[in-house]
Amino acid sequence: MDDADVTIGPVNLAARVDEALAVQALAFGLSEDEIVVRRHIVLRHLLNPGACAYGATTAGGRLVGFVYGMPNDRSHWWSGIVEPYLRAAHTVEWLDDSFVITELHVHPAYQGRGVGRGLITTITDRAEQPRSILSAIDTESPARTLYRALGYQDLARQVHFPSAPRPYAVMGAPLPLRRKPATRPSTGPSAGN
Questions:
Q1: Reported pTM
Q2: Most CB within 10 Å of its CB: which of 38, 94, 100, 102?
Q3: 3-state SS class at 26
Q4: What average pLDDT does the segment 155-168 reach?
Q5: Taking the C-alpha atoms of 34, 40, 41 and 43 in order, what is their torsion angle to the nearest 10 degrees?
Q6: Burial grade of 167 (CB within 10 A; 0-12, 13-18, 19 or more)
Q7: Can you say whether the dihedral through the CA atoms of 149, 63, 27, 110 is positive or negative?
Q8: Is-contact 44 89, C-beta < 8 A?
Q9: What is the mean pLDDT of residues 80-98?
Q10: b/e string for 29-46 if b means 16 or more Cβ within 10 A?
């Protein structure tokens, strides 16, 4: 089956926006109306300086995951929404000199296989900024577990975006992202006891 091997590499997201949004719709549960709105948003984002995108494709060329992001700019809509929350949490400095993961989605059939990890580490490894920020729905989920394993920590929680029914968390991590899950310290007696 050509779906067994997935390759991560640069993708012309503007040319494949409809494929990417089909993946996002399955992974995130978007309606047809939301897809239409997001299509314009994605295409607009890709025009920002430093914006880049990576895709996960099968040997047959099927797009099964994607990530895109850009250097953060405080004049962007997202920054304007999250800034008061970060200021209240004393983490507002994360808006400066950070690379924003704007979207990261993996087709449900390919989740849990390392595709999301590969996408986010690939894009952030190429970022020139010393840290990365993103927002994720503020609930325990496989995505939040992945982000924590990579070194992301909560910078602000219960962030409300207009028209989003659920609150988000803003997370940040120093770059490069952690490659191995954090090890738990031993709880047994130490050698010096």
A1: 0.90
A2: 100
A3: helix
A4: 94
A5: 140
A6: middle
A7: negative
A8: no
A9: 98
A10: ebeeeeeeebeeebeebb
